[in-house]
Amino acid sequence: MDRETRAFAESHFQRLRGRPAGAVGATPGRVDFIESPDSFSYADFFKGYLLPNVPCVFSSAFTEGWGSRRRWVTPGGKPDFEHLLRNYGDVVVPVANCGVQEYNSNPKEHMLLRDYISYWKDYIQGGYSSPRGCLYLKDWHLCRDSSAEDVFTLPVYFSSDWLNEYWDALDVDDYRFIYMGPTGTWSPFHADIFRSFSWSVNICGRKKWFFFPPGQEEALRDCHGGLPYDVTSPALLDSRLYPMRKHCSPPLELTQEAGEMVFVPSGWHHQVHNLEDTISINHNWVNGCNLANMWHFLQQELRAVQQEVSQWRDTMPDWHRHCQDWALPTVHRHLPGAASKPWLTGAPLWPGHHEVLLRDQF
Ligand SMILES: O=C(O)CCC(=O)C(=O)O
Ligand SMILES: [Fe+2]
Fold first, then answer.
1. Does 185 sit in the ligand 1 pocket, CB within 6 Å?
2. Distance 318 CA to ligand 2 centre (A)
3. Which CATH superfamily hosts domain 19-290?
4. For the JmjC domain, which residue ranges apply (predicted)?
5. How far apart are alpha carbons 280 and 202 in whole angstroms?
6. Cα distance between residue 159 and residue 255, in whole Å
7. Strand bridging mode 56-58 / 261-264
8. Measured from the CB, is residue 177 less than 6 Å from ligand 1?
9. Of ligand 1's atoms, which has the minimum distance to the CA of residue 187?
10. Which of 203, 282, 283, 285 to mutate to test the pocket of ligand 1 (most atoms within 8 A of CB)?
């Protein structure tokens, strides 16, 4: 980073005085479009978007040379199912059912990529409908789970990434994902994990994004305090159900074309719809610009869990044993590589060690 950019960052953080950053300054009326890689430096991104925490979209020129844009797409711009089958047919992938709401998300199952592609082909043949519902392949850890072909080149703008550096060092997990699904698949209203940043590139297809700056989601809470599942639902017009919605500004809307790259700032709630058969690469990342947001969020979550748990802890005999019985299988289920890392699973390095770790939290 050059001296001037560093000085800019220092005065930015001095102004914040440790408070977590929302969108700094006035929320823009539209999402900026960055046309040319030749005239857009890391410092431009850092000062214009990363520090102020506002979204932007980069033109397809930024992803021109990517292997996946050449090999995963047919000359007609559609997903190249045959290439994906040849290279990844036997890989197990997570698949969400967009037609079924489970809390504010969708239930997921696991299947072979070949079975998902066969579903997708049938879905197209059936006029974009299927008795199996509308299935969306989400959060496939291609980098973690396959020794990948040349798929993408990490853009310099997103290269300061403490989140994936940390997980790479532990060698068990990452936050680098592939999404793919037919027209009509979508991601419900959410903010990203740990209030991380994310970037998203369409390898083929198009997405429609709705963005709300940090804090605006408060005006979208329903009369029970819950956040909406779908911000496009007519139910939001019912002022008895959503009494504060009139105070919410309209979202920033964006249509992301094939090859374009979207920067999703920290703590911005968003909802995303695939307008065509779409494959995208989506990574979450954290660095010094959003670390305070992440820390604040984790503290808030811990307090909420402690409060919830306190209602049960004193009424249940053998509380700590219940914690162990739940926590260890959960770690193993979510971290496939964890079995060989006793210091991660909490397997005791000495008798009673892991119990101390969990008890400290609750
Ligand atoms: O593309 C999608 O369906 C969701 C993407 C998203 O939420 C993200 O990149 O943060
Ligand atoms: Fe997201």
1. no
2. 38
3. Cupin (2.60.120.650)
4. 143-302
5. 4
6. 25
7. antiparallel
8. no
9. 3
10. 282
Contact present, 211 and 273 (Cβ < 8 Å): no
Contact 72 CB / ligand 1 (< 6 Å): no
Does the C-beta of 284 come closer than 6 Å to ligand 1? no
Domain ranges of the chain: 19-290, 295-361
CA of 13 to the centre of ligand 2 (A): 25
Q: Ligand 1 atom 1: the closest Cα is on which residue?
A: 272
Residues ≥6 apart with Cβ < 8 Å to 197 = 50, 158, 263, 264, 265, 266, 284, 285, 286, 287, 289, 290
- 3-class secondary-structure state, position 8: helix
253's CB contacts (< 8 A; 6+ apart) are: 208, 209, 210, 211
pLDDT confidence tier of residue 147, bands split at 50, 70 and 90: confident
Nearest to 190 by CA among 106, 259, 246: 106
Distance CA 213, CA 190 (A): 12
- 140 and 112 in contact (C-beta within 8 Å)? no
Q: Which helix (H) or strand (E) holds 181?
A: strand 176-181
Report phi then psi at 151, rounded to 5: -100, -45
| Shortest-distance atom of ligand 1 to CA 138 | 3
What number of CA atoms fall less than 13 Å from residue 35's CA on the CB side?
1
pLDDT tens-digit profile of 61-106?
Answer: 999 999 999 999 999 999 999 999 999 999 999 999 999 999 999 9
Element (H, E) at 333: helix 319-334
Return all residues near 33 (Cβ < 8 A) that are at least 6 apart: 56, 57, 59
Q: Is 264 in the pocket of ligand 1 (CB under 6 A)?
A: yes
CA of 256 to the centre of ligand 1 (A): 11
Q: Is 282 in the pocket of ligand 1 (CB under 6 A)?
A: yes
How close is the Cα of 188 to the center of ligand 1, in Å?
Answer: 9
